[in-house]
Amino acid sequence: MKKIARRLIPYSLKLQYRLLQRYFDDQKSSLIYSKTFSENSVGEFETEIKQVIRKGDFHENKIHNLKIVADKINHLIIQPDEVFSFWKTVGKPDAKNNFKQGRNLIKNKISNEFGGGICQFSSIIYFLALQSDLKIIERHPHSIDIYKEDERFTPLGSDSTVVFGYKDLQIQNTLPFPIQFETIVKDNELCLKLISPQKINTQKITFNYTKVENGVWVETFLNDESLLKNFYIRL
Known about the structure:
- The protein is α+β, with helices and mostly antiparallel strands.
- The chain has helices at about 1-10, 10-30, 60-75, 85-90, 120-130, and strands at about 30-35, 35, 45-50, 75-80, 80-85, 100-105, 110-115, 135-140, 145, 170, 180-185, 190-195, 205-210, 215-220, 225-235.
- The strands form four sheets. It has a five-stranded antiparallel beta sheet. Strands 1-5-10-8 form a four-stranded mixed beta sheet.
- It starts with a helix and ends with a strand.
């Protein structure tokens, strides 16, 4: 009966409930979220990661959505101990905020939603944060793996799905100096840089895969030490 009742509740009400939960959790938390932007660079060192943007359904819409996200996080400064929140920075991915429809993966299904495709941006941020040894406060893997090996633009396990109100990506700057995002989106490439006043010693991130009947277990290693495990359903 509880499951049936939950299905009858409109999505808009569920979202408002989730946002209220987030709000009250934030009030109890001691985390300080980054809000400062500056076109002045915080330093001369760069830690960079690039990914191919592969063509597919809604490709032009995906590029459009990625550029909106890029504009919203470009030049964001994260001071020591401050936390970057994807949704607090980007905002709701709807038509009002100029997002377009694109492909999304929600509840083990492929669907079309406003803001589709922006998970590639949250994923590249997550992957760069791992390499830079920042603290991952919140991250959610995708539930399914839809790509063949020759179609991948990033290793399986380096992804981070984001769903407004439900799933966020939050990263804390544990370095003793500020870091700053710099973003570039082209028609075939996504580039993210961390600018810093001191050199960031990048960490070795590797993934170990164990295939089972209905999917694959992915174990993430940081400098050869096991960090976490995620399971992905194979379509």
